[in-house]
Amino acid sequence: MRVFLSVLxxxxxxxxxxxxxxxxxxxxxxxxxxxxxxxGFNGTSVVVFGTTGGPGDVIVKLKGPExxxxxxxxxxxxxxxxxxxxxxxRRVPSYYDYTVSLGKAALAGYPALLRExxxxxxxxxxxxxxxxxxxxxxxxxxxxxxxxMQEKGFFPVGPKVLSFLNPGFFKASFDLPPGVPMGIYTVExxxxxxxxxxxxxxxxxQVGQVGFNARVYLFSNNHSFFYGVFAIMMALISGWSAFTxxxxx
Amino acid sequence: MQIYLPIAEMSVxxxxxxxxxxxxxxxxxLFGVGGGFLATPFLLFMGIPPAVxxxxxxNQLVATSVTGVLGHWRKGNVDxxxxxxxxxxxMGGAVIGIFIFRLLQHFGHIDVFIGISYILLLGSIGSMMLxxxxxxxxxxSKVTEDVQAISQREFFRNLPYKMRFTKSRLxxxxxxxxxxxxxxxVLISILGVGGGFVMVPxxxxxxxxxxxxxxxxxxxxxxxxxxxxxxxxxxxxxTVDVILALVLIAGGVVGAQVGVRLAKRIKGAPAxxxxxxxxxxxxxxxxxxxxxxxxxxxxxxxxx
Lengths: 249, 304
Description:
The complex is a heterodimer of chains A (249) and B (304). With 249 residues, chain A is an alpha+beta fold. Chain A has helices at 2-22, 104-107, 111-116, 135-152, 211-222, 224-245; strands at 25-30, 34-37, 44-53, 57-63, 66-77, 80-93, 96-100, 127-128, 163-166, 169-176, 183-193, 196-209. Helices cover 69% and strands 7% of the residues of chain B. A two-stranded antiparallel sheet of chain B has the order 1-2. The longest helix of chain B has 28 residues, at 80-107.
């Protein structure tokens, strides 16, 4: 009985204390929570800072809004090269990149974690719309989709290193190419020990046009008829002034 | 310097856009052609999506046609009555054109369709022009046959809705200019070209208009059809990029000034040889894109 009680008190007192000491924590913040696409926009970088409490490795992912993408393959028809086959993929992130603090080789040891958290291009959760297609064809189209996205810089290929500025203080940065798609991006940081996520935090990043560009874009989207009229007025005025002020004869 | 196009949602080098505008304006000043048939392929080569290239070209065409028509109007060389009839047909053509455009876009064949159309148009016009201008250069005096206009043939004379076009001194069915205008409207909506190089011969040989009135009247109706097509593109597809149009228009104005000054110094026939060669060059470039196996067979399309 006394033994039992002492065990109980030990549990009672030590339990929370022990948990507190080892409670893994993770905090991160974006250097800027929006990316402004201005007229002179030529790509930018997204910087993430964060702190960790407790041991573990850090993984940071940046993902753009998901969209449906049609992959088309050209084939020969009457001597010309035309689009013949296509497969539609659902939930393709318009941008994807990640960075890890541990070696990629070490990371490969936890396939379940990679799949579940969509870490690495081959673990992205997009899927073909038409499941009847044979696996080889789907694989081919899927690889082409990834390759095209890499060529455009939307799935960057360069190796990313997550740097620890101090123990427990990390910094990660991502490169957005000039033609980066607009929308709400998510940045997610994970603290991982032994292949298990012990802490996580995510933030959103707004990528959009600002200033004059944004006005043009919104005008075109919300009042497309008047936008068309405006475009014509602009053309009429410039055409008329070109004739009037710069005589051709 | 990169410039971000808000509707195309991509950033392109501003210099090359401006150079393209100047080059197209230069050609239009030098040869009196619209230049749309050169601008659209080059926008496509630059990676601008076909829908944006065509929609924006419709916008730019308004500006170039206004500049062009004012000069002809001042000289009294515009047949407003006949041009009005062509406009009626052209509006219908523009609606059909936009519909075809959307259909082709949905099935992923818009690039090929634009490609084939350009090859056919540029190939035929370019070789005809080359042939004609080479003959002129070699001083072989061409026998100008007095060809009877198609509108005066038996079948077309019997068409209903006959109308008198006093300015052009024509008496024919209104259906003919409407049909020619319709074809022009389809061209503007699908290809983003004013179609001057098709419309001018059509107005001379099919309608039998006096050639003095043809350029002005053609430009006059293009203003309305391209403006209409521009609104349709803006509403149906949201693919009119005013920033892109503005850069092209500005470049075009500069280029046209140079072109017009140069046009006074050079001889007509050799200049037409040069234009024919440019047209054929673009045609060959587009053919290469179609017939040579592309380096990458795959392409992506984002479903809107």
